[in-house]
Amino acid sequence: MRAVRFTEFGPADVLRVVDVPDPVPGPGEDLVRVTAIGVNYGETSIRSGKAARLFPWHAAVRGTDGRMGAEVIGVTADGRRLMGAATGDGYAELAVLGNGVEVPPHVGDHEALALLLQGSTAVQATRRSRLRAGERVLVEAAAGGVGSLLVQIAARAGAVVVAAARGEHKLALARELGAHETVDYSRAGWTEGVGEVDVVFSSVGGSVARQSFELLRPGAGRLVLFGFANGEPLDVTPAEVFGLGVELIGLWNPLTPENVREALDLGLKPVLGPTFPLADAARAHEALESRATTGKVILVP
Ligand SMILES: NC(=O)c1ccc[n+]([C@@H]2O[C@H](COP(=O)([O-])OP(=O)(O)OC[C@H]3O[C@@H](n4cnc5c(N)ncnc54)[C@H](OP(=O)(O)O)[C@@H]3O)[C@@H](O)[C@H]2O)c1
């Protein structure tokens, strides 16, 4: 089969189409003919080596075998339509799923993929935040794959949603999805006027994460940390967390069948981004890394 792999960390062009043996499912696993592949920001970080630098203790991010493990949707030989995380090659024509979830027929392939890892992340982040009606919540990268779902979940929960992103068209999308207030964090002094927030959903890292942290309501605020898209970790000290009486909540790898089913059941509006042929996986990575996309980026074999 055809797959996309890489042999060294580097820019998107290290991704190459290669011919590899068809994968063989183990006991309890399913082989699917892949109909669509979801691209996640984390895969760009694995390919570039950023993830290996930031999380060296995680074997899953080292990328040493050059496979792009990814979320896929496809059909089994006996006609079941399943989606899940591929155990081996994910950017590929065939994939093996260990924990495939059956997708309801009324949900399209691309919509379903938008609710897989990103849906699981949004569901788990909301649960961990203990968000309550009436609270103020700041969502970073609010027009992205995870962010666009978090805006919707938080608005439905009765929170006052402040969507933060770069550029007016992303902020306009966040408003359409239910955000009550918007702020462009690429502008200097962007936190002025935002006011205190009870919850931050933080995925951007660096100074944006730091400034978001400083918006937390002392004695009550919670910051759910699930990404460093700009490659720089959030820099706060335990003394600051202690002295402000706030919580930092880390979130890693929330993809479980239960979270996927919950994301599917919520009836969220999946935001679809660009679709690329599998052979153009490098272009898909470039689009995500250059912050050009909103919503879900898809590859089609
Ligand atoms: N912890 C976990 O298990 C887990 C699971 C899934 C996703 N994640 C993380 O969640 C975040 C969102 O993932 P996603 O797949 O939905 O991606 P995404 O939000 O669709 O894309 C990333 C967004 O991050 C923002 N960003 C800010 N600074 C950036 C920079 N220097 N370079 C690139 N992007 C930058 C951009 O939005 P603006 O232009 O609006 O700033 C960009 O569109 C990522 O950080 C990802 O690693 C973590």
Main structural class = alpha/beta
Number of helices: 10
Bound molecules: NADP nicotinamide-adenine-dinucleotide phosphate
The CATH topology name of the largest domain reads: Quinone Oxidoreductase, Chain A, domain 1
**Largest sheet features:** 7 strands, mixed
CATH superfamily of the largest domain: Medium-chain alcohol dehydrogenases, catalytic domain
Low-confidence stretches: none
Principal-axes shape call: globular
Order of helices and strands: EEEHHEEEEHHEHEHEEHEHEHEHE
Mean pLDDT reading: 96
N-to-C span: 10 Å
Estimate what percentage of residues fall within beta strands.
15-25%
Share of residues in helices: 25-40%
Q: Please give the CATH architecture of the largest domain.
A: Alpha-Beta Complex
Could you please describe the fold and organization of this structure?
With 301 residues, the protein is an alpha/beta fold. It has two domains: 2-115 and 270-300, Medium-chain alcohol dehydrogenases, catalytic domain (Quinone Oxidoreductase, Chain A, domain 1); 121-250, Rossmann fold. 29% of the residues lie in helices and 24% in strands. It is built from ten helices and 15 strands. It has helices at 41-48, 50-54, 109-114, 117-129, 145-156, 168-176, 206-213, 238-244, 257-265, 281-289; strands at residues 2-5, 16-19, 30-39, 71-75, 81-85, 94-97, 101-102, 136-139, 160-165, 181-184, 199-202, 222-225, 247-250, 272-277, 296-300. Strand 9, helix 6 (168-176) and strand 10 (181-184) form a beta-alpha-beta unit. The radius of gyration is 19 Å and the shape is globular. The protein binds NADP nicotinamide-adenine-dinucleotide phosphate.
